[in-house]
Amino acid sequence: MTKIAPSILSANFATLADEIKDVEADSDYIHVDVMDGHFVPNITIGPLIVDAIRPVTDLPLDVHLMIENPEHYVSAFAEAGADIISVHQEACPHLHRVVQQIKAEGVKAGVVINPATPVSQIEPILGDVDLVLVMTVNPGFGGQSFIDSTLSKIESLKELKDKHLYHYEIEVDGGVKAETAKKCVDAGAEVLVAGSAIFNQDNRSDAIKNIKSSLK
Ligand code: DX5
Ligand code: ZN
Questions:
Q1: Whether the CB of 195 sits within 6 Å of ligand 1
Q2: How many whole angstroms separate alpha carbon 201 and alpha carbon 10?
Q3: Cα–Cα distance between 9 and 175 in angstroms, integer?
Q4: Can you tell me the distance from the alpha carbon of 194 to that of 148, in angstroms, rounded to the nearest whole number?
Q5: How far apart are CA 8 and CA 175, in angstroms?
Q6: What is the pTM of this model?
Q7: Quick check: CB of 31 below 6 Å from ligand 1?
Q8: For residue 65, which of 5, 45, 70, 153 is within the disulfide window of CB 3.0 to 4.6 Å?
């Protein structure tokens, strides 16, 4: 069963608790986009917001760090209540060390690759991670168009997972909606992050059902 992870980046931050409650019943994770204005050209939220939404939902908080030096903030996000912390390969010269640091916090560890980063860059770490996030847009903003050339990387990750019996989940993020979700799942994606396709719609439940029914 494909998992759905609504990205609160496109939610109304003035009523964030209600926004999360609105999607909770139809979702598997809540995806939290952390941006620092350096690694990506946008600034969003920090550990304080993760701490504030932690009591709002029992769903796992899937924290996507789009920041430089993520190792400085791993324990703050873990203490705030993150269940999964993912870091970008492009931001981590010592990726193995950061992944171990995340796991030592008792949190699931994910690694993320941008559209221009090949799977080969993360191959040595694939046996250590709980999640691999394939960016299907360039990170920084919601509402961008899906980049088709990322699909072959999802296929490679699925092949490597099956061949080596790795346990990571394959997640995709960016431009995911009813029109693009099925090609991701057909390529091997197991978790779909969607921001604007859910939170820019009046009826979020219908929006999620629409994505799920597109997979049939
Ligand atoms: C983009 C973020 C995404 C974003 C996706 O940098 O990582 O999680 O919210 O937004 P949509 O689904 O609108 O492309
Ligand atoms: Zn994200």
A1: yes
A2: 10
A3: 13
A4: 16
A5: 14
A6: 0.98
A7: yes
A8: 70
Q: Is 36 a catalytic residue?
A: no
**Residue 156 pLDDT grade (very low, low, confident, very high; cuts 50, 70, 90):** very high
Binding residue numbers: 7, 31, 33, 64, 140-143, 173-175, 195-196
Active-site residue, selected from the candidate residues 22, 33, 62, 130: 33
Asked whether 210 and 202 are in contact (CB, 8 A), the reply is no
As for the ipTM of the complex, it is: 0.99
pLDDT tens figures, 55-104:
999 999 999 999 999 999 999 999 999 999 999 999 999 999 999 999 99
Catalytic residue, chosen from 22, 36, 130, 173, is: 173
CB-CB contact of 84 with 61 (8 Å): yes
The binding site for a divalent metal cation comprises 31, 33, 64, 173
Question: Is residue 148 flagged as an active site residue?
Answer: no
* Domain coverage including residue 71: 3-214
The verdict on the CB of residue 137 being under 6 Å from ligand 1 is yes
- Asked if residue 144 has its Cβ within 6 Å of ligand 1, the reply is yes
Which CATH number do you get for residue 21?
A: 3.20.20.70
What total number of domains does the chain contain? 1
